[in-house]
Amino acid sequence: MAATTTMQWAPHDYQLLAKQDAYKTMEAELKKLYDTAPEDDPAKKETLRKDFEGFKKLFTRFLQEKSPHINWEKIQPLREGAVLPYADINQRELTPEVCSNLLSKLVVLKLNGGLGTSMGCKGPKSLISVRSGLTFLDLTVQQIEELNRKYNSEVPLVLMNSFNTDEDTEKILRKYKSCQVKIFTFNQSRYPRINKESLLPIATDVCESNLEAWYPPGHGDTYKAFAESGLLDQFIKEGKEFVFVSNIDNLGATVDFSILNHMVNPPNGPMSEYVMEVTDKTRADVKGGTLVGYEDKLRLLEIAQVHKDHVDEFKSVTKFKFFNTNNLWMKLSGMKRLVDKNELDMEVIVNNKTLGDGLGVIQLETAVGAAIKNFHNAIGVNVPRSRFLPVKKTSDLLLVMSNLYDMDNGFLDMSAKRQFKTVPLVKLGSHFEKVQEFLRRFENIPDMLELDHLTVSGDVTFGKDVSLKGTVIIVAEHGNRINIPPGALLENKIVSGNLRILDH
After folding, report:
1. Catalytic annotation, pick one of 196, 336, 392, 434
2. What's the pLDDT score for residue 208?
3. Residue 392 a catalytic site member
4. What is the rounded distance in angstroms from the CA atom of residue 274 to the CA atom of residue 271?
5. CA–CA separation, 121 and 114 (whole Å)
6. What is the per-residue pLDDT across 118-133, written as a single tens digit (0 to 9) for each?
7. Dist. CA 290–CA 294, nearest whole Å
């Protein structure tokens, strides 16, 4: 009787085979999707091919990663000089001639891939009106135009769009043709969402009408997409040396001569290829990414990479004092080297989503700041809070629309009339979530120069010329409405119950 031999498989062998099988199956599915692209559009097929190649690399990384969590024991204290105080680089007086020379080396790149859906708006977020009828994009163009006019320079503005924002953005760019700003655009990749259970694309063809089946893979895609657009090489040939990258909805992310000068003319030591602007963490920022030492390099640590056992420690404002503003300065030649040599190493972010039909899907993404560890002599600069003024919710919109800020040529600065330079804490309830509903509830924006804290909950409206000072809490219980009358002064007040001003 013949003996039978049973082969013993170790658990990791099963896992390896499963991963190999998952990759082969994914490759076959992507080939099927690629074959649905129309043959009469070779440019679109080539873009699709590049997108799928990029996605396969990201999917491979996803399969290879043993854990999404960082090894907490390997985190090191920041080395001396890893994060410089802004005051240390803001000491040199810069003449107009020096500023003009600095600007001649600069490209400004704004991340413009997001939609305004979280604020109840259709289309690109950059087209939401934020101040005096001007949009994020209007303010950005005004800022660059003012720099070019004042210093006789030619700083180009580059927008990284997504397939969600490209068409609407291109239409609106026509109105800037007479402006003293050259505007360039390129698209980030379009990757397929994958079923959480099967790890296969949910798309059945590459038809762009099924938008839910596709996603832009995070702003870590900036490097690859910028290079593939041809713009990276073009700007280097034109003599540009540095790029300032930031979110278009951060109204504090303006060109800073001190940081640019520090990169161009380092006072001592080698030139930094990469500068990340960080700012002091408050209790409102505990989820923001922070800089740490890891394997003798500077590394961006995001909350998604932290095991639940260490989340409270990650949120500590004493242990991790800074958070990333996503205002990033990079040397173009360093970016080109990393892309050409395929040396960019950004952690995969697994973003779980639930579609409208209840289907669970996964988006594989990367963050642009995660590449800090790949650049030579990368540092952080601890900048003032004024350089971080994002508009993510209508509570942020209320702040930037108010008299807390003065506006000049697209630049927003805290009003000199405000005694304290801290920004008030504003919390608006669900009745204010959507921009149109938010605007309907204010006859005009209240005077907030002396406001410290505002909480509004429920069905509340504000009449004209209302003043808010100190701590103001307004709560309309369910079924009640509160109308704050025109000209009202609320100073350290709690308003609750039902207050309705009737016309008669």
Report:
1. 392
2. 66
3. yes
4. 9
5. 11
6. 888 889 999 999 998 9
7. 12
